[in-house]
């Protein structure tokens, strides 16, 4: 949730900023009763900036992550969404743990029914499982990866005697081409987000002489290193992806929250910071590259990566914010510790140290260059580091 400045008043030489929360209006979306606690289903869940399939995918939650929704709406696309924090997740990729489960009495009657997809059930090789027939709305496909550095994978299943369906298309409605047992190696050809909100992989089974689509919760993907780490030169600007537990960060093709690459990173992923710019949104953005895969590059926002260098000597930086936004300082890397101190975009600061805040994202301790007593913690998205 962004805060927009609505008025300023000059009182005794001090600028006082009054800010108000401007609620997002979702046209033709009806509010429903929401569950208290949910869990991400196998295969993970895509995170959207807005409650619509055509919206921007900003990351992914891992399977099993526990979440606490604050809102549930029925969109004009015929899909139910749950709001978690300031982002949205399709209800079809979550299961209710506590609170009122989805019920017909709570949901409006859409023009056409849209039942939640039935999870794929593994099958014995001699008796392939009958495909489920969901009619869920289409998800937003991920860009097909250009696999220059081969990615290998392995089929996984809880029961070693159970074989998993390999399908003609990335949907359980599609024809089953063959069934493969757990442990079978494969090469990843493509990936996409299916209409059931699961990630699907197109796999090539060299030993079997076959290829087809398999749902992501039955696939363990490994990235082959382009060169041994022992011979690689140490990164000039080492960094680490930073996000809350279970949240994947989607690398972007440009420094803006619009088009995602096929690359996802979990918190702690080691990267090299290649470049810093002020994004279209006025915030700090960094072009990063995975240390274990030279082909994996993209842009991440400043709060999603930390610059892992020595801060024995303060590092030069500038504050960065959206037009009209005032930057808050905090006593600790936590939003509940706000100080009566504000900064403006373009102001020069010295960075004293960095950390992962209690919200899971990057924070920097800074000191205003021309006001040594003005010091505090600032969110990573508001700091443009001079690499």
Strand order of the largest sheet: 17-16-15-12-18
Taking all Cα atoms into account, the compactness measure Rg is 23 Å
- Intertermini distance: 29 Å
> Proportion of β residues?
over 45%
Number of helical stretches of at least 4 residues: 0
Shape: globular
Overall pLDDT level: 77
Helical amount among residues, as a percent range? Answer: under 10%
Task: Tell me which oligomeric state these chains represent.
Answer: single chain
Count of discrete structural domains: 3
Taking the sheet with the most strands, its summary is: 5 strands, antiparallel
Class from secondary-structure proportions: mainly beta
Biased composition (Low complexity): 123-138
Signal peptide: 1-19
Pfam family, one: SH3_3
Organism: Acaryochloris marina (strain MBIC 11017)
Outline the structure in words.
- It is a single chain.
- With 387 residues, this protein is mainly β.
- It has 3 domains: 30-98, Roll (SH3 type barrels); 151-223, SH3 Domains (SH3 type barrels); 227-387, no CATH class.
- It is built from no helices and 32 strands.
- A 5-stranded antiparallel sheet has the order 17-16-15-12-18, with no helix packed on it. It has a 5-stranded antiparallel sheet with strand order 24-23-22-19-25, with no helix packed on it.
- A hairpin with a 7-residue loop joins strand 27 and strand 28.
- It is globular, with a radius of gyration of 23 Å.
- Residues 123-138 have a biased composition (Low complexity).
- Keywords: Signal.
- Residues 99-122 have a biased composition (Pro residues).
């Amino acid at each position: 949730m962004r805060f927009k400045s609505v008025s300023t008043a000059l009182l005794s030489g001090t600028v006082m900023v009054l800010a108000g929360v401007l609620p997002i209006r979702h046209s033709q979306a009806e509010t429903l009763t929401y569950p208290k606690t949910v869990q991400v289903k196998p295969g993970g869940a895509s995170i959207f900036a807005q409650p619509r399939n055509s919206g921007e995918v900003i990351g992914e939650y891992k399977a099993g992550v526990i979440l606490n929704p604050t809102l549930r709406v029925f969109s004009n696309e015929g899909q139910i969404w749950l709001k978690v924090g300031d982002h949205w997740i399709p209800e079809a990729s979550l299961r209710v743990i506590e609170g009122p489960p989805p019920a017909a009495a709570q949901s409006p009657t859409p023009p056409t029914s849209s039942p939640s997809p039935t999870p794929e059930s593994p099958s014995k090789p001699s008796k392939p499982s009958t495909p489920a027939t969901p009619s869920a709305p289409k998800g937003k496909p991920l860009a097909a990866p250009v696999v220059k550095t081969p990615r290998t994978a392995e089929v996984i299943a809880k029961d070693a005697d159970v074989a998993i369906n390999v399908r003609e298309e990335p949907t359980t409605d599609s024809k089953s081409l063959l069934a493969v047992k757990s442990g079978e190696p494969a090469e990843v050809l493509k990936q996409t987000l299916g209409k059931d909100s699961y990630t699907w992989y197109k796999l090539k089974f060299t030993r079997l002489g076959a290829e087809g689509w398999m749902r992501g919760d039955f696939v363990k993907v490994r990235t082959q290193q382009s060169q041994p780490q022992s011979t690689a030169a140490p990164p000039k600007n080492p960094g680490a992806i930073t996000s809350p537990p279970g949240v994947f960060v989607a690398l972007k093709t440009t420094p803006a929250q619009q088009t995602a690459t096929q690359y996802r990173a979990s918190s702690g992923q080691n990267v090299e910071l290649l470049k810093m710019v002020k994004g279209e949104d006025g915030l700090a953005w960094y072009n990063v590259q995975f240390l274990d895969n030279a082909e994996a590059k993209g842009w991440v926002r400043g709060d999603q990566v930390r610059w892992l260098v020595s801060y024995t000597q303060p590092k030069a930086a500038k504050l960065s914010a959206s037009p009209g936004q005032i930057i808050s300082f905090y006593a600790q890397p936590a939003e509940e510790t706000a100080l009566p101190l504000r900064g403006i975009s373009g102001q020069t600061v010295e960075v004293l140290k960095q950390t992962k805040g209690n919200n899971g994202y990057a924070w920097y301790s800074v000191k205003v260059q021309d006001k040594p007593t003005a010091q505090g913690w600032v969110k990573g998205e508001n700091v443009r580091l001079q690499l």
